[in-house]
Amino acid sequence: MPTPPPRPTPEHEGDRLQKVLARAGLASRRASEELIAEGRVRVNGEVAELGRRIDPEHDLVTVDGVPVPVAPGLVHYLLNKPAGVVTTAADPQGRPVVVALVPDEPRVFPVGRLDADTEGLLLLTNDGGFAHRLTHPSYGVDKEYLAEVEGDPGRAALRTLREGVDLEDGRTAPARVTPVSPGVLRLVISEGRNRQVRRMCAAVGHPVRRLVRTRIGPLADRRLPPGEWRPLTPDEVRSLEA
Fold first, then answer.
1. What is the pTM of this model?
2. Rounded CA gap, 83 and 90, in Å?
3. From the candidates 64, 91, 115, 235, which is the catalytic residue?
C-alpha cells in the first residue's frame, strides 16, 4: 500500500515556519523569514508563505529542494571509529560496538557499515530519512578511503581498480584511485557493498593491511581523534542531503 502524503497542518495549529527553521539551525528567524519571502521554502511540496504554521513531526520542509530536518529530537553524529569496534547496536561475541561510543539517549543507529577492522568516519543518527538518502544506491554518495596494501600496485592493477573489478557479486563501478606513496592508495567509491575496498584490492593482488575511511560525501574531519564523536552542524547535514 503506498505511503499516504503528509497531513496538512491547519493554519491555526502548529509552530510558525520561520521559528522551526531557526530552531533547526538553518538561519536566524529574520533570515528564515527572508528565505520564505523569496519562495525558497516548501512545505509538503508547496511554496510556503510567511506566517505558515507546520507540524514538525509530520510536515516535510525543504529549502532550495533540500530536506531540512525539523522534527524535534533528531541528532546526527560523526564518529571516528577505531579498529576492533563493530558497526552494530549489539554483538553476540561481546565485541565493543559503535553505539557505546556515543550518547545513550536518544537511541541512534549507524548509517551504513564499516567492518570491524576498518577505521574512520561513520555517521550515526535517529533520522530515518537522512539515513535512507545516504545509503540508497540512487544517491551515489562518495566515500573516500586510504588503504595500506601489500606490495606496490602497478599500472595494470590501478587500471583495473579504475575501470571496475570483477567480484563474486558482479563488477564494481569504476573507482577513483590515486597512489599516495609506495603501498598506499586513496580510493573513492560510490557503492556500498560489503567489504568492497578490501575485496577490490585483494582481487588485483594487493590485499589491504590497514583501511581508513577519510570522507563521506563532502564531510571530512582530520581533527577528530579515534573513538571520539561530534554532532554535525546544520550546514553539514544539509550538505549531505543536497
1. 0.80
2. 16
3. 115
